[in-house]
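hiii so um. not sure if this is the right channel but i have a protein structure encoded as tokens and i wanna go backwards to a sequence. like what aa goes where. can anyone help
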């Protein structure tokens, strides 16, 4: 009874970086839907790429962390030391 969401369905062919073999076809037919091959796919917040190097995932985490740390830095003068430490720990802890 589940249906595919065409906008969110992605297929990634994962292979060793030393043995790059392309997927047999450019798209995969699932029922009435043709799903095209992607270079990266996101699943439960993790970004997978075709060689499982995790470069795109690490880059994404670094960008969002830098954004939030910069925003904390902008309001730092209005915070106590303990409040600032709590904010930073609440940002870093879920990412590890």
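sure thing!! here u go:
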């Amino acid at each position: 009874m589940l249906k595919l969401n065409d906008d969110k369905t992605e297929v990634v062919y994962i292979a060793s970086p030393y043995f790059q073999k392309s997927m047999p076809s450019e798209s995969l037919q699932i029922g009435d839907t043709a799903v095209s091959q992607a270079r990266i796919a996101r699943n439960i917040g993790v970004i997978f790429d075709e060689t499982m190097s995790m470069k795109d995932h690490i880059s994404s985490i670094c960008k969002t962390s830098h954004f939030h740390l910069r925003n904390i830095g902008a309001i730092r003068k209005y915070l106590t030391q303990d409040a600032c430490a709590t904010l930073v720990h609440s940002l870093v802890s879920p990412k590890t």
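oh and The helical segments are 55-74, 81-92.
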